[in-house]
Amino acid sequence: MTLLESIGEATARSLRSASTGQRNLLEEDSFLGVLVVERKRTERSGKPFLLALLETGNRQGPEKTERALQNIAAALLQSTRDTDVVGWFKNSTTVGAIFSGLAAEDKTSTLSAILNRVSATLREHLTSEQFNQVSLSFHFYPDEWDHDFAGRPSDGALYPDLSTRDNERQTLLRVKRAIDIAGSSLALILCTPLFLTIAAAIKLSSKGPVVFKQRRVGRYGQCFTFLKFRSMHTNNDPSPHREYVKKLIAGEAERKPTDDCSDGVFKLTNDKRVTRLGSWLRKSSLDELPQFFNVLKGDMSLVGPRPAIPYEVASYQTWHRRRVLDVKPGITGLWQVNGRNRIEFDEMVRLDLEYAKSWSPWMDIKILIQTPRAVLRGAY
After folding, report:
1. Higher pLDDT residue, 248 or 152?
2. 246 CB-near residues (< 8 Å, 6+ apart)
3. Do 17 and 63 fall within a single domain?
4. Structural domain of residue 13, as residue ranges?
């Protein structure tokens, strides 16, 4: 069942419930469809929602477990608001409830109130044995990301559709990975003389390591070590870039004039932290070559959104986050071949989301074919 069919079914059920005065327990596809819609609604309204997940141990046997879950669902349908949604998060395993339109100011008091209400209702409808078997978890959206955490900072329970979509695209994902391995391996072999030449030039022109390593945000918000040829002096202050990025994301950044682009670019120009050689490497995009190691390792793909810096993601609006959730970051992508730094940040995100929604191996190949022309036009 497609997402639109799931949403349509959920809407039809809600209309039938309203006309009869009854509320229904949604099936898994319908419930997950509503969850996706609630995420999008929160992105626009700014009002968070809470996903409550309830499951019970299987120690009582399948029949008793199913009976307990049915009692849990009945209790939730009676104790929640008409605007809340109750359904199967996982059929016959986990019951979910979506509490929408919550106040954004005080999550702690909201969570406490809902927890007390749900717990009291469950005690009324379950036996003491059943109640003691219940496992209850809460998941706020937007979720808070912690980039100091070594694992995935995003809450996977809030994005079950992503894993479902990946399962449906298994064959295409294998083809994409095969292209990544073959392409990055070939590039590393063919570019070995260029690697050595650039490495020697960097070493001779300024003090410091040849390769610059930085934490970047990969898929699902999980960080990885990003590689580039060093184009800056060592021990520089990152605050100018940090402040510019905040303005760029907020839509407050001004276009910077350049000799190569009469319209200007959304980028720090005349940056004193950049070496003379580094300026040329950036303009020619040769500083990106070590990222083929990231692709070979699997942290990146040849094609995908530009990998973000953690302090950049910290300034994202909620809808911006989808660019680091839906697909792996890439060396090139729709943004790079459609204007690069000439377009505003929101438009870059829309291009990334368009790619995530409609990518295919053939689309990747077309973007890869267009990339050399974009590089020849220069990094601006």
Report:
1. 248
2. 315
3. yes
4. 3-142
